[in-house]
Amino acid sequence: MMRLNKFVAHYSSYSRREADKVIQDGYVKVDGDVQDNPATQVDEREVQVIVAGKKIVRSDEITVIVYNKCKGEIVTKKDPQGRKTIYDALPSKYKHFIPIGRLDYATEGVLLMTDASRVANILMTSSLERVYKLKIKGAVTPIMEESMKKGLELEDATAGAHELSDTKGMKFAPFYAYDIIKNQGDYSILKIAIGEGQNREIRRFFAHFGTDVVDLKRLSFGGVELNNLPSGKVRFLSRSEYGSLHDYMKIEEKAKKDAEKKRVGDAKADIKIQKKLNKGKY
Predict the structure, then answer these.
(1) If we measure between CA atoms, which residue out of 19, 69, 83, 90 comes closest to residue 49?
(2) At residue 183, does pLDDT exceed 90?
(3) Which of 172, 120, 121, 165 is nearest to 144 (CA)?
């Protein structure tokens, strides 16, 4: 299930704001009925949605692309401040593709995008390895290394965050790996591997130690690399990359179904116990 405005934005050229407006203005029909609530939940695999007389057609085929994001681009369809977005650089045929996670304005590198929201949702919340190369001001200290190895939990992680971010506290899992390429007084260069994609996570982590990240590039996501892809360009996944993705999706979707079955089973068991308690059998 997904919100109607998200469905329209994902499977058409409308931005999320445009989807909200076209729904609220009464131009959207869901299974034959006009629907003016953007938050309405729809089953993306079964629903029929018509926008301004045109049916939205979604494909069951999964397409994933790699975009080499440039610095100075926002990962959104439209920016109220008029800044350049990734969709300004992408060919028009990819305008409906969903970014799998986000890279901030000053970060470049691997950005996976897909036309399937279920793929985006699973990969965004996955613990797949994300590899970055970064340059920080100053030296890598022993306490930084200790925190990279053991993780870090902060009640106030606003240093390094965007000024409009509502996220204050943050828990940083131990890094999967790190390699200090250069470590000197004025600046240091590292290669790190993490399994999360929290809001400006890397910048917040190093800002806690009073260190600014001055360059940040994502080299890979889930084993998918740039492969000499120029900045601002797109490539499709290779056959082997698609194979790995499908295998991962099968495992994750099965785990999700099993968890849902267990949740439903536990809920039914709780109801049975409660009924017996109400009848005085316990």
Answers:
(1) 19
(2) yes
(3) 172
Instruction: Please give the structure tokens belonging to residue 23.
Output: 């729904």
**Domain span holding position 163:** 129-221
CATH of the domain at 24: 3.10.290.10
- pLDDT tens-place string over residues 106-124: 999 999 999 888 888 889 9
The rounded distance, in Å, linking the Cα atoms of 226 and 50 is 37
pTM score of the predicted model = 0.74
Q: Where are the alpha helices (H) located in 25-141, listed in sequence order?
A: 86-89, 117-124
Give the residue from 181, 203, 221 where a domain finishes: 221
List the end-to-end C-alpha distance of the chain, in Å, as a whole number.
Answer: 39
- Whether 179 is a known active-site residue: answer no
99 and 238 in a single domain? The answer is yes
Report yes or no on 35 lying in a domain.
yes
Do the bridges between strand 64-69 and strand 234-236 make them parallel or antiparallel, or are there none, so unpaired? antiparallel
DSSP, res 76: S
Same domain, 171 and 195: yes
Residue 234 to residues 58, 124, 200, Cα–Cα distance (Å): 22, 19, 24
State pLDDT tens for residues 99-110.
Answer: 998 999 999 999
Provide the b/e sequence for 134-170 (b: ≥16 CB within 10 Å): bbbebbbeeebeebbeeebeeeebbbbbeeeeeeeeb
Catalytic residue among 20, 33, 88, 104: 104
pLDDT tens-digit profile of 88-99? 999 988 988 999
Residues 213 and 136 in one domain: yes
3-state secondary structure of 28: strand
58-77 pLDDT, tens per residue? 655 678 999 999 999 999 98
Same domain assignment for residues 15 and 69: no
| 194 closest CA partner among 168, 209, 227, 216 | 216
Asked whether residue 118 is domain-assigned, the answer is no
